[in-house]
Amino acid sequence: MGLKDKTSKGSRWRKTFVYAWQGLMDALGKEKNLQFHFVFASIMVVCSFIFSISRTEWLFVILSIFGVIALELMNTAVERVVDLVTKEYHPLAKQAKDIAAASVLVYAFMSVIIGLVIFLPKVIQLFEKWLVF
Ligand SMILES: Nc1ncnc2c1ncn2[C@@H]1O[C@H](COP(=O)(O)OP(=O)(O)OP(=O)(O)O)[C@@H](O)[C@H]1O
Q: Whose C-alpha in 42, 61, 76, 119 is 20 to 30 A from the C-alpha of 9?
């Protein structure tokens, strides 16, 4: 492999990263739901540190956070493509948008369950300790 090949591969990776970053920033600037997911994710991370959750629990928290954000980005991409294809009302456009939104909702629901399984017993334990004092 020549130096030129290595350089062009390197710049291709850089371009891929730059475009993906631009996509993330664009969506973050315009999508209220995505902003909400970032705020909620930050709260989850702070709670995870406060309660000193285990390594396995961290894995579930990380999967929940990144999964929901990745799906919200995909949902945003679907919305953009639908809007690009048609401004008119079309049942298929409605289905595409609603199904993409449903994918986020399903994953977010799972994340809430994970959050409850991890944090609820810890919060209850905390209250029990307070009540004893
Ligand atoms: N071209 C269309 N044809 C039919 N139904 C549509 C069309 N565009 C949007 N809808 C329906 O209207 C709803 C709201 O669409 P709208 O584009 O206002 O918001 P969104 O882009 O889906 O969501 P967000 O508020 O997160 O940007 C969609 O979920 C879909 O049910």
A: 76
Residue 83 Cα: closest atom of ligand 1:
1
The answer to whether 82 and 93 are in contact (CB under 8 A) is yes
Residues with Cβ < 8 Å from 94, sequence gap 6 or more?
A: none
Judge whether 72 counts as a catalytic residue. yes
Cα dihedral 46→49→52→56 (10° resolution): 80
What is the ipTM for the molecules in this complex?
0.91
d(CA 27, CA 126): 38
Q: Are 107 and 68 in contact (CB under 8 A)?
A: yes
What is the tens place of the pLDDT at every residue in 23-55?
Answer: 999 999 999 999 999 999 999 999 999 999 999
**Which residue has the CA at smallest separation from atom 20 of ligand 1?**
79
